[in-house]
Design goal:
Layout: E1 10-13, H1 40-44, E2 53-56, H2 66-75, E3 80-81, H3 86-89, H4 98-114, E4 121-125, H5 137-154, E5 159-162, H6 170-183, E6 192-193, H7 204-224, E7 230-231, H8 245-266, H9 271-299
Parallel strand pairs: 1-2, 2-3, 3-4, 4-5, 6-7
Helix pairs in contact: 2-4, 5-6, 5-9, 6-7, 6-9, 7-8
């Protein structure tokens, strides 16, 4: 990256799924393709390999091993740790431990709350959870508010919501980012905006178009309203196979050009309309949130 004149602000580390279960249960699972840390030294190396802030999302908070993984990650200097959404949707077949998992989830959130003044932020990718099932972005905003209520209001932590995997509409990416900022009463920095993966296919030329189409609005939004979100470029071959290092660099260099050109577009954006649309989503999200809370009260 340095040789090409580019840079990375932070990088995400994907743990293997067996890291999401306690060590004494791991013999029940086939090892996948993610990273497996066996010692504290291996954990500590995360932030020492290159001078880039690491992020840990998969199989962390919300898994069956959230507390141990969170403690190890914090000890290694990781400050954004996911993933609230995984509690609802990531499964570990054969381990029916819902009560244990729920208690572990709450404890991991409470640990993050203890270190919030040191910059510890809980990451939640809305597209990884129930949010992927909603047909209305107002409901997705409401779900984000519900996650904030649990993690922030009840347990005292700080939350940053990630999105983007399932966002094909370029302008809605800006609108939704504004809505997320409107929900963020603590001005917590964003983690990152994921690339649009649903428009990628086997045609590399079309994938180039998709990369530019989603990254430009993400960049423009951060230029106008800097909220800390990193822009995550998806390599052009990701829908076909595991990308090579050169293909990852290629995506980043494409983003660099979009950063250069974004200021020419930003000045012509109708920000009043953008913010008005975001406020509509927040209003609808408030309705969703209140209905969920009322329904839970009825169950009590």
């Amino acid at each position: 990256m340095k040789k090409s004149g580019s840079f990375i602000d932070r990088f995400g580390v994907c743990l293997d799924w067996i890291m999401g279960v306690p060590e004494n249960y791991r013999n029940k699972f086939q090892v996948g393709g993610g990273l497996i840390f066996k010692t504290r030294d291996e954990w500590s190396a995360i932030g020492q390999v290159v001078p880039v802030q690491p992020h840990l999302g998969d199989h962390m908070i919300g898994s069956l091993n959230g507390v141990d993984n969170t403690v190890n990650a914090l000890g290694a200097g990781v400050t954004t740790i996911g993933n609230l959404a995984h509690y609802y949707t990531y499964e570990y077949p054969g381990l029916d431990m819902e009560l244990y998992r729920t208690e572990d989830y709450m404890k991991a959130i409470a640990i993050m709350a203890h270190f919030k003044d040191d910059g510890a932020i809980i990451h939640s990718n809305l597209d990884d959870g129930y949010g992927a099932q909603f047909h209305d972005l107002a409901n997705l905003v409401g779900w984000a508010k519900l996650e904030r209520y649990i993690a922030e209001d009840l347990l005292g932590a700080r939350v940053s919501h990630c999105y983007g995997n399932l966002f094909s509409n370029s302008m809605l990416r800006i609108v939704f980012n504004r809505a997320m900022t409107m929900l963020d009463k603590y001005d917590t920095p964003g983690s990152f905006v994921n690339g649009n993966t649903i428009d990628y296919g086997i045609d590399i030329s079309r994938n180039y178009g998709a990369l530019c189409a989603y990254s430009l609005p993400d960049i423009i939004c951060q230029m106008k309203y800097p909220s800390g979100y990193a822009v995550a470029p998806v390599p052009l071959t990701e829908a076909i196979r595991v990308p090579s290092v050169d293909e990852i660099l290629e995506a980043h260099k494409t983003i660099d050009m979009m950063i250069e050109k974004a200021p020419y577009y930003e000045k012509f954006i109708n920000w009043e309309k953008i913010n008005s649309e975001a406020e509509i989503l927040v209003t609808g999200g408030d309705v969703f949130f209140e209905r969920v809370i009322n329904a839970m009260d009825d169950l009590a």
